[in-house]
Design goal:
By secondary structure, the protein is of the alpha/beta class. It has two domains: about 230 residues, Rossmann fold; about 35 residues, no CATH class. Helices cover about 45% and strands about 20% of the residues. It is built from eleven helices and ten strands. The strands form three sheets. A six-stranded mixed β-sheet has the order 5-4-3-6-7-10, sandwiched between helices. Helix 7 packs parallel to helix 8.
Length: about 300
């Protein structure tokens, strides 16, 4: 039997992203800079200069030596990055040319290829209701091919989505030497327990979130007809008229989005929201550049 594959253009997405990020040197420099918060290891002290960022001053050490000392860091090699990817039924939805999971696969492919090109290690966790697959960080072409094969296999997807379980797994089983966790989901189901777990993960690892949404996650079509909607988890069905429910639905979604973004901001988690009706390459490149710029204060 031929295995069913997602409609994802992995090679094309990688090539387009590489060309947008220009030269290899620029790409890797920006990528590494955006992870400087956890991508540096302490190497000692040196005299503080006027050109240094004040956040580098170690006041306790300065008081002991009676002179202002700045922390000095060296760049860690072979950083370990783990993608935590939602493969629940909620991601197998789409009103555009791409399902959310197909679009997410292209985003992850482009970003993970950048990481591996810098000779850093990539790992991944696929989660639905439970952890479906966990591969610790490593590098190499064979590893990337395995990653992409699993990510684009239709059999990977299905079932409920439980982000809380994935975050528990990260906290309990992911080695603390991992430099960064990159969460990939539509983040539609967020409750207080998930928020608490997100906080714990963000306190342990440099954490980023890629929100993948379909336009219909935000807006109902202006259709004057009755439609049956089914919850993929409970299989409960409701009958709605989109034109009548549209206003309340979109108000609810907006409130949820504002709350979600505030939670990420409060937890110091950088977030990028992408929608499947728009190319991701320019937005992802801008996100990396902006994050790199915000991290430059700790580059020595």
């Amino acid at each position: 039997m031929v295995e069913r594959r997602l409609n994802s253009d992995i090679a094309g997405s990688i090539a387009l992203f590489q060309s947008t990020m220009k030269s290899f040197e620029i790409r890797t420099k920006m990528y590494r800079t955006m992870l400087k918060g956890r991508g540096l290891e302490f190497d000692g002290y040196r005299d503080y200069s006027a050109d240094d960022d004040a956040n580098l001053i170690d006041w306790k050490a300065s008081m002991k030596t009676n002179k202002i000392l700045a922390k000095q860091y060296t760049e860690e090699r072979n950083l370990k990055i783990i993608f935590v990817i939602d493969v629940g039924e909620n991601m197998v939805f789409g009103s555009t040319d791409k399902l959310k999971c197909e679009y997410a696969a292209e985003v992850v492919a482009a970003l993970s290829n950048l990481i591996l090109s810098a000779r850093d290690k990539v790992g991944y966790i696929f989660f639905g209701e439970t952890i479906k697959e966990f591969v610790p960080p490593t590098f190499g072409k064979t590893h990337f091919v395995r990653f992409m094969n699993s990510l684009t296999s239709a059999s990977t997807y299905g079932g409920d989505s439980r982000l809380e379980n994935a975050l528990n797994f990260v906290l309990n089983y992911v080695d603390k030497s991992v430099a960064s966790i990159i969460l990939v989901s539509d983040f539609i189901k967020i409750n207080d327990k998930v928020k608490n777990k997100l906080g714990l993960v963000a306190n342990t690892f440099e954490t980023m979130a890629l929100i993948i949404r379909d336009p219909m996650d935000k807006n109902l079509p202006d259709i004057h007809a009755e439609l049956v909607l089914e919850d993929p988890s409970s299989h409960e069905r409701i009958l709605i008229n989109p034109s009548l429910a549209k206003k309340n639905y979109e108000k609810f979604v907006l409130e949820q989005e504002i709350s979600l973004m505030k939670n990420f901001l409060d937890l110091n988690i950088d977030v990028l929201e992408l929608t499947t009706d728009k190319p991701f390459v320019a937005n992802l490149a801008t996100f990396i550049k902006q994050r790199a710029k915000s991290k430059k204060s700790v580059v020595l």
